[in-house]
Amino acid sequence: MRPPKTLRIATAGSVDDGKSTLVGRLLYDSKATFTDQLAAVEQASRDRGEELNLALLTDGLRAEREQGITIDVAYRYFATPKRSFVIADTPGHIQYTRNMVTGASTADLALILVDAVDGLTEQSRRHAFLASLLGVPHVVLCVNKMDLVGWSAERFERISADFERFAARLDVHDLSVVPVSALLGDNVVHRSTNMPWYEGLPLLHHLEQVHVASDRNLIDARLPVQYVVRAQDSGGSGFRGYAGTLGGGVLRPGDEVVALPSGFTTTIRALWGPGGVRLEEAFAPQAVTVQLADDLDVGRGDLLCRPGNRPHVGTDLDALVCWFGERTALTVGGRYVLRHTTRETRARVSALEYRLDVNTLHRDPDATDLRLNQIGRVRLHTQQPLAFDPYRRNRATGGFILVDEVTNETVAAGMITGPALRQSSVAWHSSGVERSDRASRGATVWLTGLPASGKSSVAVELERRLVAAGRPAYLLDGDNLRHGLCSDLGFTPADRAENVRRVGEVAKLFADAGTVAIVSLVSPYRADRDAVRAAHRDAGLPFVEVFVDTPVEVCAARDPKGLYARGEPGLTGVDAPYEAPLTPDLVLRPGDGDPAAMAVLAADLLE
Amino acid sequence: MSTGTYEMTHLQALEAEAVHIFREVAATFERPVLLFSGGKDSVVMLHLAVKAFWPAALPFGVLHVDTGHNFDEVITYRDDTVRRLGVRLIVGNVQDDIDSGAAVEESGPRASRNRLQTTTLLRTIGEHRFDAVFGGARRDEEKARAKERVFSFRDRHGQWDPRGQRPELWNLYNGRHRPGEHIRVFPLSNWTELDIWRYIRDERIELPSLYYAHRRPVVARDGMLLAHTRHLTLLDGEEPTEALVRFRTVGDATCTGCVESTAVTPDEVVAEIAATRITERGATRADDRISAAGMEDRKREGYF
Questions:
Q1: In angstroms, rounded to a whole number, what is the distance separating the alpha carbons of residues A66 and B121?
Q2: Which residues in chain A touch residue B282, judged by CB atoms under 8 angstroms apart?
Q3: Region A312-419: CATH code
Q4: I need a labelling partner for A46 at 20 to 30 A (CA). Which of A81, A168, A603, B224 fits?
Q5: Catalytic (active site) residue A523
Q6: Peptide bond into A261 cis (omega under 30)
Q7: Residue A4 confidence (pLDDT)
């Protein structure tokens, strides 16, 4: 038998929905309760003048038993021969958002309860929304108290349909609905004989079967450095390893890696599991120690990833934030300590875009603060750069917490949506037409790379693809522009800088007009490209830097214009420098496929 | 390690989580210490800590709060282990606090030094200015523990406020504190008793001999079997009898019971526990039987 895998579950629902009873029933019927626990619950039930109250199995604190409510998240463990389960049992009414967000942050599956008598309530919708916000991959709706509605299939179908309609507006990938009676045990562990019309699995069987292996991000290799291990090995030479928990992807010895934010590249010499188990590969979320081929200045808070697949690196980011502070509120200008992967830095709230009503999903752009249990979208500026991915893509590199510098309390959970894009309000002659009034949204895609690296081929494919999809796009080819707009410029560093600036300005105008400007330009200097990026940021326009990383030997072999063959003077990459981007939005390598396949990758960035 | 499927087993996932916690503390605290009693949970915890920092030496020492009412084989095991691993052992003696008047010994044949350990623990933490204290507590042990965070904040008086706990999201732990305050850290939070034993079996971790079946004189009291040692005062009418037993938990010899068992190998213990219908603390810990809130009250005061 293969050893059991783990399923982490977060429950949501109020006492009235019978959530504690359901969890108690799950433990009881799967024989995960012990006789002494049960004896204690029987005694406590008698003391309260009740029949066996399974809810008492999960209420741990004195105040909870006294007040008959659940205050804090309780963790429960049980196992069947097929699987081990961790249940984060989150209270329904007090601190619901804070507790559910906490429980859901690590959950594979959210178990949402609704009362068959009451049907879908605001609270059920809120729970579903929070599960979706926290990126919980699987949701199970338990329609409880089916015994009180005469085991009615019709009633169940109504509630299911209501819920599915609401969930369609959310980011819920896998949704199941199960009719149960937690009190009587129907469809919890054992199949109900009262509801022959239900053809699905009882709850526990469903939980045993849910496939979670593919939920992890095994594509984007991310290793936040947690701790530097230094030791003298037996031979007397020094061991220097970088320990951390893989936040995504797969790493193997020999892999080329880049350390962010410094941008230095090296290869993995060896990979070790805990206790010195040599690994041929490591995957998320394994805890590993990595030895690198070169001595780099890498420390806690840095991130190792593949050079062709990097997270965003920056100090300005947009995020959805759930506020937990009881005594304070989040306001613009507020300063906090931000914890993200293994990095801790100061952060300032530079904007509050809107507050979200979790019941109606309505956005209030006039909100001036976020109070306890409220959720909103903010822009943050951090003191040190962070290496991050959108939370939707990777929980490990997209989630953060904010800590109050004075009280040291955790006051917020944040989910990064992406790098900050400043909104309009550009100080020049406004045309009277807002950008949002235009039929389409513009952007600039900037392809940089050596001569003959294949930029133009990708650009042509990208333009074709976008136009075919109904999105206005226009190709600004570096060579073509030198015939007109830039015909007065040569190839000195100063002229190259001016060339890049002009093309950047033209691209900006196209983007502002609602067109996707596709620039194919060697643009060898980092500073010039960064200036174009900054100009776009200041204008509130999306800018995507694509590094066409074709090795110089390959370029020379292709050489469609014969530049390499005839030894063109000042050729970039041969006798003029090329500064590769440190943090491109996308890197394209010959192995990524033909120009059409590469164009698909670039187009994805515009989604 | 599975290759190709990229899936971790349940124990591998638990190990990775614990290792992450150890490294997090070592990287962000100045003076951590690990509570080590020779009990199986603290043995597993120490084993994991050593693995987390391989090939470097353990970057912190271990602390034993010694009631003076020990099983001899556990103390021998403790001393052998720290010598083998080359870790620094600090012992906080409950006797010292009794002698100084800081703690008052209970009287009578049922007296236990269990509760007095809190005084000694907090004194030792203060004396050494420990800012992070690793404990082997598991959430499955007890209802109050089920609500505790992995990083559990303690105020200046070492007290726990169950209603004012910091939310704990993803694997982002908030260990910030002011001088004089400290954080209790529980790397085994998500382990169950069965997980511990399976891990002991798989990793071939050596334990004090009393975790396996052996013959010894015992006294039946309050529905438990207590070992008849020099620390136990017999009540009227109590007569020690010999039995084949093993311990499920090891603590103060006056309040830790044993269970009848024939299990002499880790495999046999795993099989026994998988079939048992009684929790380990329910079976063997008189200290938890004080009241429904016994553990919560002691934890609030600063207990492990």
A1: 30
A2: 34, 36-37
A3: 2.40.30.10
A4: B224
A5: yes
A6: yes
A7: 53
